[in-house]
Amino acid sequence: MLRYDWAATPVAYAYWHQKSAFALERDVYESWTMFAVEDGRFSYEIGERKGEAGFGDLVVCRPGVPFIRRTITPLTFHFIHFEWNSEMTDEYERELSGKHSVSDVDRLSSNYRYMREVGFAGRQEPAFGRMKHLFHDIWQLVDMERSSADGRGSAAAEADSAMQTARQWLLAHAYAPLVYRELSDLLGISPVQLTRRFRAAYRMTPTAFVTELRLARACRLLAETGLPLDAIAQKCGYENGFYLSRVFHGKKGTSPSAYRKLYRV
């Protein structure tokens, strides 16, 4: 998708936490703009492209094009103005404008955490260099995953269409009790087929994808709130703090309390 010698430079950055509504539901920007969703969901319309976005989705709008958006649930996101370091054709600009989804949400969540810590103060170093590196890494994730999908051929591309629906369903239901049979029935396939095709499309099972979403939210709540563990568990789709702690330690190699001490903002 991206050319290996192309890179983007952030020119402005803001982090919004639990924004209930946009001040403007329609805006036009003079530079490239990215809405990188960390929590919550919103609907968007950019030219002929429209849809919904949640965690793992990057919504990109090119300059001069109306960006119409509306929050669906309280939204936590990174708002980035940027510029490409190389010229590109109008056709390629159109291709880049719209929604890009990242499957490696664990690495994406790590980038987001560092972006919050680094912030943005113009081109002052070392913050500027660090932010540029993190932003470039996000685009590299998009590029590598798109290249991997392209390499699987047309048959896989057809399967990906259904799996994109599966991914959106999982994003919308990840933090509530899940019955995967409901999703497989919705798609008209068996649970085994769902697991196999989802793994082929996103290199992880639906269960692993939901676990990463839940733990990414748990990490944010541990770092940014003083909520007790049981309350965090409820917000992340787990029955209680004991079960969350067991899953957290198994995946992160540390306890929720130790993580909170290390990353509490």
From TrEMBL:
Q: Which InterPro entries match?
A: Homeodomain-like_sf, HTH-like, HTH_AraC
Q: What is this protein called?
A: AraC family transcriptional regulator
* GO molecular function (one): DNA-binding transcription factor activity
The scientific name of the source species is: Paenibacillus contaminans
User: Which keywords does UniProt give here?
Assistant: DNA-binding, Transcription, Transcription regulation
Q: Which PROSITE patterns match?
A: HTH_ARAC_FAMILY_2
Q: Which domain of life is it from?
A: Bacteria
- Annotated HTH araC/xylS-type domain ranges read 164-262
